[in-house]
Amino acid sequence: MRMYDIIEKKRDGLPLKSEEISFFVKNYTEGNIPDYQASALLMAIFFNKLNDEETLHLTKAMVESGDTVDLSYINGIKVDKHSTGGVGDTTTLVLGPMVASCGVPFVKMSGRGLGHTGGTLDKLESISGFNVNLSKEDFMNNVNDINIAICSQTANITPADKKLYSLRDVTATVDNLSLIASSIMSKKLAIKSDAIVLDVKVGSGAFMKDLSHAKELARLMVNIGNKFGRKTVAIVTNMDEPLGNAIGNALEVKEAIETLQGNGPKDLYELCMTLGTKLLILAERVDNEAEARKLLEESINSKKAYNKLLEMVEEQGGDVKYIQNPNLLPKTKYVMEIKSKTSGFVRSINAEEIGKCVLSLGAGRETIDSVIDLGAGVILNKKVDDEVQIGETLAFIHTEDLDKGKEVENRILDIYKIGEKNIDGKTLIFDEISN
């Protein structure tokens, strides 16, 4: 089998066989195929696309390129959740404890943030002593003991995806739905949970800007998950404005704690309820959505979910005092108020631009080696459709650098679009896709 023939076949718009895809993935991962030939194939895929069967084969080959995590040692139906990334996306820190407190094993191997989207591991490391580097044995023991563990991925999960993504990133071939779907799902499927809920973000702060493409990506990923024998559901959700009010690592941890205590932002709470409902049904914990929601609401009202977060933090070496007293979480030297210069209603808040502001404050990574400021970020005091008067506070900037803070203040004043009230109310959930 020759790489030249595979490139030529896809260049001419013909479907690739499973053995051709496996040959490419295996040999490129092992260094036997040069970057220029892999780039040629990726560009041919970008223009001529992969069908559903090819996408499934590509995902399988990437899963098989490295280690998998067998979770059969864990009792019960194991559930996992994945978000395609957004701004202020604190759902894992709220959703995990909620689901676990309802008796369902929640297994999550997460990544770090890069660019304007935050990473769950960075947020958790705002808690002094919290260990994200669990061994497989500790990971599984923790889930058996308390129904939850959140940690970093092992180094050798889907090495093909890591290598291919790096190449896609520099060859302008990232934006292909089949390549995106296989990249995401290979990492999820390498961790052998029984059921997966996908939170597919769409809007200004999401990777997918267009609703029709977001739905197609959701369909592709659900198809892959189901074909692999994992019960998979995708929820397509709004990321035109940041989720919740907090954007920044320690600030989001504090907001997650408030949400678990029943005092969080409505949109974050509702999204966690929606995702949690699906997870409880997939885990066969309940028979219908009404029962699921009732259990989840009780987990908040009774503080069971909050107590589950305390258990997880303690089990993973963290100092629970940081949860009991969130004022101990990392802080910045300065907190600046942004006052509105006009009256009206908030028409829009571009989530990506807010994310970039937070990145410039040091709360995110420009490169994988960047050192982040765990206390930096922005708290939104006004969201879309809120009424604003001149002089009212739009947002708070948490920063170590007043000059950077002033620059971000001017940018945020431009990002907030204030005028007549929107005719249509905002939508949080656009669609659910399960087959």
TrEMBL record:
This is Pyrimidine-nucleoside phosphorylase. Catalyzes phosphorolysis of the pyrimidine nucleosides uridine, thymidine and 2'-deoxyuridine with the formation of the corresponding pyrimidine base and ribose-1-phosphate. One of its GO terms (biological process) is pyrimidine nucleobase metabolic process. The keyword Hydrolase does not apply. It is an enzyme of class 2 (transferase). Keywords: Glycosyltransferase, Transferase. One of its GO terms (cellular component) is cytosol. Residues 345-419 form the Pyrimidine nucleoside phosphorylase C-terminal domain. Its EC number is 2.4.2.2. It catalyses: thymidine + phosphate = 2-deoxy-alpha-D-ribose 1-phosphate + thymine; 2'-deoxyuridine + phosphate = 2-deoxy-alpha-D-ribose 1-phosphate + uracil; uridine + phosphate = alpha-D-ribose 1-phosphate + uracil. Homodimer. It holds the Pfam family Glycos_transf_3. Coiled coil: none annotated. Belongs to the thymidine/pyrimidine-nucleoside phosphorylase family. SMART domains: PYNP_C. GO terms for molecular function: 1,4-alpha-oligoglucan phosphorylase activity; thymidine phosphorylase activity.
